[in-house]
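QA checklist item 7 of 12: single-chain prediction sanity check.
[x] sequence parsed
[x] length recorded as 677
[x] structure emitted
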Amino acid sequence: MTTPKFRPARLLLWSIAALIGLIALCTALLLTFDWNRAKPWLNERVSKATGRNFAIRGDLSLTWEKSQTDQDSWRRWVPWPRLSAKDIVLDNPDWARTGPHMAEIGQLTFSLSPLPLLAHNIVLPSLELNAPNIALERKPDGDNNWTFKSSGPSAWQLELKKLVLAKGTVRLLDPVSKIDIKADIDSLPVTSPEGYGIGWKVGGTFNKAAVSGEGKAGAVLSLQNSSTPYPLQASVHVGKTAIAIQGTLTKPSDLAALDLRLKLSGASMSNLYPLTGIVLPATPPFATEGRLIGKINRTGGDWTYDKFSGRVGSSDLSGTLEYIAQKPRPLLKGALLSNQLRLQDLAPLIGADSNASKANRGDGVAQPGNKVLPVEQFDTTRWGSIDADVKFTGRKIIRDKELPIQDLVADLHLKDSVLSLTPLNFGVAGGNLISNIKLDGSNKQIKAEMKISARHLKIKQLFPTLESAQASLGEINGDASLSAVGNSVASMLGSANGELKTLINQGSISKFVLEAAGLNIGNVVISKLFGDKQVKVNCLASDFAVTNGVMDARTFVMDTDDAIINVDGKINLAQESLALIIHPKSKGLRIFTLRTPIYVTGSFKNPDVGVDKGVLALKAGGAIALAVLAPVTAVLPLINISPDQQSDCAGLLAEARQKPVAPPPGKTLQQKRAKAH
């Protein structure tokens, strides 16, 4: 009997044939299988995973497509399944107000790369959404409808490479952020050269302000490809704020590169805080344009508004600002420049603008008609949200009166709710007004500390249009040191403690000089004392103690060729009231007609000047009172006197040269009464 020979070649052929047959059978089953039979199983699994009812109510189909991988290997021969599902719904939680469904999708189509499944990676080369209607909603307590129940960490990772959107809507309702907006998305009939494939319109409200806008974007959003920029264009209005962007976004999953042309305009920069989270000051209406460059990193991100330019009120503004997301607080740093800065445009910073301006920028606190000092409060609740290091330079200052302020330099620092201006310097009349200001907003009330010095302000430069002032060699010098507690300029000055000192020598003064400076009270006083003539001032020394908002004239002496003028009394900053008595004393036989004391009383808003207690009424504006309040910044001709120079008030000058002091914020000044003169 003959034993049959073993034939391995035949066995191999049969094995290959069996494998091919099995693959063919599986392929036939996949191609011919009615995938709608799998819908109940899929619906149940998704509903269980999300904790919400999920349903594919339309047709479910599977097709195969050629692999889109760029790899030159056997992987490119593995086909990709492409799944399509129609009429999909995902329910909202029971508490939702946006309707029964969180999502309604006309058709969802995605392709799947099968080989990464072996490593627990779900790679979707593309996801197409046709007619999606999405409703995103958050409750006042913070719960939202886009967070699903979790069964713990998953071993699977999802990677989406491309997202294709067609016609649809997205609504966001968020009482926490006071947002209720709806965006309508539609395909553009023709793709533009810039790559725009979809257009959108948005409407609704944000923080009770109307929202409207429109824009365009690319039809295909490449989420992972860093070499494919995604085009963006938008124009949106939020209340009085307008935002326009145009540029590209690369690798949106990581925000690898955001490069946009950004235009911003609005009633006040402070209104940008709800939109950006960046603390900016109150300003007049503004408009800027620049390049916005952004990227996300592990610490949060880095955004730069590069080389922007524009206007704030009537002033020009340019510079670069960088926002760095970091712990414990983000940082805003940069440099700003104004070539022509209108002084009035700085008024909203301290609430000193008009009530019409306040209403336009959305501030609800109007300045009372009988008050001069600004009552608008600083919003310190925002100060702790960011740190800042910003330098501002104003090359030329423009103001209504002919006061020659040449430039402004301010270094602003904000850290842990403490705002510092170190320094805040003005160049004035060939000299300098130097100040260091610290505002601690970490408590309910701001603790303020201010040190101000005026040095070498030249009289002839103070009044360049007055011929009578050009012969004067005098200078202005003065110092102030104050501390205070409060949340507005009015409340801080009303609680202030410290000292103010000023010096004069070899100056001249007349009612015309005071008119030029806008000091109408001083104008009336000088007119009553000296008439219309120019008065030579040998020296002036003033020393005010400020105790709990009350300025006490410890020393105020002006020595002229005709008389010695003494002033005593008080100025109440809290009540905005004046109680000063001016005592003139004639020198020798020189003609000096007025010997009766002059009384300056009334309020800052409506001061009275009279030669007796039946005072003469005098109306004066806010600028008048403010000039009387601050001798260190009032336009008075001061000069340093040499120690060996003979003068009737050399002793006063020596006394006034002592540096002013201020106690810590909230503490009362322990003052000493100056010697009588």
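[x] summary fact logged: The mean pLDDT is 77.
[ ] second reviewer sign-off
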